[in-house]
């Protein structure tokens, strides 16, 4: 392994350590065999030096000559050793979390917050911190576990949002724990309801909503911070009073619960469920933009949106007209409508209102 100036990069060099931007976003994963396009991307981020292996490797012939069929950033990430390990570990942790929740519910296990959240911090480090969490989660969307994998995802997202907000470490820990426990009440619902592969009936939807009260009843007498308890029962409340179970408004909603609310909705809508496909993240971001100040805590939603969109820079997307291209610029006033480079064309979605992003590929 050696440190080399970005000016001296050439195709065939192999990245030996994950490359991050100065604001801690993943540019390329370890093991990438550099192409001309990769080198251009590294230079576009104003990086100076990177670590590469001592020996070069052959560049696949179709990459420089057929850029249209080159692997996308997401595809390369999914093929990386880091992603494969992360996926394995988060799935293992989801199974362990299921057992823990069931044992807490039947009284055979104490609710130890430190022990429960320890795997989340390991996953956070394994993903590459705030720079890598969303890169990993964006590529885990084929999993339909609506409780335990979802709880881990929300916990990781809450941790990331709290860090983006530059909250004190104690608040970051509370947000992480609250995200992990927010759906613990679902362990007390009928399993056939959780496993249902068709849309819920009106009765089933009402029954599902009971998980917030059931969860609170389960943990209300436990020796854990009140803000975690509040998040369990408040994470479906909205600032305009349209949420449940109490229809409370504004500052009546706990600040940590406000973080969990945003993380929960984003993960829920962008993940696959047994009865529907995942929504495109940009469709969800657009919904947040429309409803943001009305339904969500302003500090939370602004911080989340301005940071989440930047995790998609350089990702390949598909437009509703079938074109594909790479995101090259985010418009601060219209976060869900970036500029996309399709071949030699630059499509400004802020101006091309008939076009929209339908998938990240």
Outline:
By secondary structure, the protein is α+β, with helices and mostly antiparallel strands. The chain has helices at 36-44, 62-65, 73-78, 81-105, 113-127, 133-138, 148-164, 169-181, 191-194, 202-209, 211-219, 226-234, 255-270, 281-295, 298-308, and strands spanning 2-5, 19-20, 26-28, 49-52, 316-319, 324-331, 334-342, 345-348, 357-360.
Keywords:
361 residues, alpha+beta, five-stranded antiparallel sheet, two-stranded antiparallel sheet, 12% strand, globular
The side-by-side strand order for the widest beta sheet comes to 8-7-6-5-9
Tell me the span between the first and last alpha carbons. Answer: 31 Å
Helix-and-strand structural type: alpha+beta
Average predicted local confidence, pLDDT = 91
* Count of helical stretches: 15
Main β-sheet: number of strands, strand sense, barrel status?
5 strands, antiparallel
> How much helix is in the residues?
40-55%
Strand content: 5-15%
Low-confidence stretches: 62-68
Order of helices and strands: EEEHEHHHHHHHHHHHHHHEEEEE
Given the C-alpha coordinates, what overall shape results? globular
> Over the alpha carbons, how many angstroms does the gyration radius reach?
21 Å
What is the count of β-strands? 9
Can you describe this structure?
This protein has 361 residues and is of the alpha+beta class. The chain has helices spanning 36-44, 62-65, 73-78, 81-105, 113-127, 133-138, 148-164, 169-181, 191-194, 202-209, 211-219, 226-234, 255-270, 281-295, 298-308; strands spanning 2-5, 19-20, 26-28, 49-52, 316-319, 324-331, 334-342, 345-348, 357-360. The chain has a five-stranded antiparallel β-sheet with strand order 8-7-6-5-9. Helix 4 (81-105) packs across helix 7 (148-164), helix 7 (148-164) packs antiparallel against helix 8 and helix 8 crosses helix 13. The longest helix has 25 residues, at 81-105. The two termini are 31 Å apart.
């Amino acid at each position: 392994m050696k440190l080399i100036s970005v000016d001296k990069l050439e195709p065939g060099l192999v990245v030996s350590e994950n490359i991050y931007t100065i604001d801690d976003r993943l540019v390329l994963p370890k093991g990438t065999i550099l192409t001309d396009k990769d080198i251009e991307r590294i230079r576009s981020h104003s990086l100076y030096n990177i670590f590469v292996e001592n020996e070069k490797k052959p560049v696949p012939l179709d990459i420089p000559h057929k850029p249209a069929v080159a692997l996308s950033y997401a595809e390369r990430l999914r093929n990386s050793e880091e992603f494969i390990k992360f996926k394995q570990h988060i799935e293992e942790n989801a199974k362990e979390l299921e057992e823990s929740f069931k044992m807490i519910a039947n009284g055979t296990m104490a609710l130890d917050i430190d022990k429960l959240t320890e795997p989340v911090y390991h996953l956070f480090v394994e993903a590459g911190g705030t720079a890598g969490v969303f890169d990993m989660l964006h590529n885990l969307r084929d999993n339909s576990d609506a409780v335990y994998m979802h709880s881990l995802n929300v916990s990781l997202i809450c941790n990331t949002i709290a860090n983006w907000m530059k909250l004190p470490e104690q608040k970051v820990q509370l947000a992480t724990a609250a995200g992990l426990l927010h759906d613990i009440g679902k362990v007390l619902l009928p399993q056939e309801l959780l496993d249902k592969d068709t849309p819920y009936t009106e009765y089933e939807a009402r029954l599902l909503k009971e998980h917030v009260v059931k969860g609170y009843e389960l943990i209300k007498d436990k020796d854990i911070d009140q803000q975690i308890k509040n998040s369990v029962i408040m994470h479906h409340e909205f600032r305009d009073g349209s949420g449940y179970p109490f229809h409370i408004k504004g500052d009546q909603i706990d600040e940590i619960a406000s973080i969990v609310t945003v993380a929960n909705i984003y993960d829920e809508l962008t993940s696959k469920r047994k009865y529907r496909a995942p929504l495109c993240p940009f469709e969800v971001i657009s919904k947040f933009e429309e409803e943001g100040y009305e339904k969500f805590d302003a500090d939370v939603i602004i911080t989340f949106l301005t940071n989440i969109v930047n995790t998609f820079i350089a990702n390949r997307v598909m437009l509703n007209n079938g074109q594909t291209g790479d995101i090259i610029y985010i418009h601060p006033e219209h976060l869900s409508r970036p500029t996309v480079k399709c071949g030699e064309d630059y499509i400004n979605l802020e101006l091309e209102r008939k076009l929209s992003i339908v998938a990240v590929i």
